[in-house]
Amino acid sequence: MNGDTPGNTNETGQQPVNPIHTADKSHSYLSPTEGPLRSLPQRPTLAVAPTTSLRTALLQLNQSGGDAIIVVDKPSNLPLGIVTLKDLVYGMAQHGNNLDEPIATLMTGAPFTLPADAPAHRATVLMTKKGVRHVLLVEPDGSLCNLVSRSDLFGLRGGGAEVLAEAVTEAMDVDAMADAAAAIRKRGAELFTAGMGVENICEWMSALNDLVVIRIIELIEDEFDLPAVPWCWLVFGSEGRLEQTFSTDQDNGLIFLPGEEGETESLREAFLPFARVVNRGLDACGFTLCKGGIMAGNPLWCLSLSEWKGKFRNWMGNPDPMALMHSTIFFDFRPIYGTYELADDLRNWLIPLPPEHPRFLRAMAEEALTCDPPLNWIGGFVYDGGPEHPHSIDLKLHGARPFVDAARIWGLTHGIWATSTGDRLRSVGAAQKRELEETAAEVEAFHLIQRFRIRQQLTDEDPEDPNRVDPATLPDLNRLMLKEAFKQAKKLQLRLKLEHGL
Known about the structure:
4-stranded mixed β-sheet; alpha/beta; CBS-domain; 16 helices; Beta Polymerase, domain 2; Four Helix Bundle (Hemerythrin (Met), subunit A); 11% strand
């Protein structure tokens, strides 16, 4: 494997400070899936020196009520290994380890670690992929921060996720992956019908879909002699925001780090055939090819780290309306596979820049305001389907998009690390010290529209237009709820207008 793939045991790299640590704590309620691992509830972490006896370790573990012990180098607090309660019991019962022996004799060295400010979603996916139950959180200097177990994470909890994840990780070809992806969608539809919340179903499906993408890349990577340089597969748009629904195409790219700038073009040519096969593999698994060509197999989106920085610098420095319209989803990027540090470095570089380009933010607001929520001045529905789809509304374009665009703009303005619309709105609410009830109403309205979208996708027989709904077909209460959600979208857009003088 090339790069630091999910099979590796460690992931390092400086992470940006999340606003959750700097904003008013009473407003901090990022979701347990995309928020930073550091923000998960802290539990007493038992850390001992490698010379600690098994007897002492057992007593301390019993007193703490935990299920694992971290072995650390005491002067530096650097983690050396992990010993679970299962390891202790097995070691003594099966191998007769003496209670006076040092705990280092039973520890698993080089434990799985992640930066404390990495997204919890990343931990969910990688822990499932690696089949481990614990991850050690480390500070930028490598010192121990906390211990997180699978029970602390939510993305793949319940719903038969473990069986589906096992089917994905054990698939040996694209055909088997296509069957696994179809099973995920089928089970997701069942959970949605049974009443699982929209945010939870999107997180659940995003985690499993990430595993599908990872496995597809793994299978295809083995067929290519890829350059021995760091690289990472990126996703954008709804996948980057953890908001994939049941009808979605793929938006992805590739980032790599040349040893020398002169190697960039030859490296791109080496990566493109591999990326195109991955794109086709994803298409076979139900992630349709992007009609706009935003895929890693397109040389426009298979770029070096410096080229990606140049793209973002150009978008911010020269906000051409047409280019801006097509570039917004790139600001939702998220790493899926490979050397995650490349994506994290790109985001660290990017986060402080948008506030330095007010013309760019204003242009983004202007573009966002071209998509009005579908209500007229007296509160009636405005239909956009034309003669082909009379009396209908595109819930993606005129329903969800106003929330997505506003949340993205405010996220960029306030340096928000999260990419999901809900978490962006929550973090912005904290940064602006707005009332929790206001923010909760915005998030609820967005998820209500998403629920209508998903239901339409699961029942509509028109695959070419799966987000279009005729309000007349909805019960009276649902029509009223939809109007209230659109009113929240109008409020968001009014704030954008006032903030940017539009």
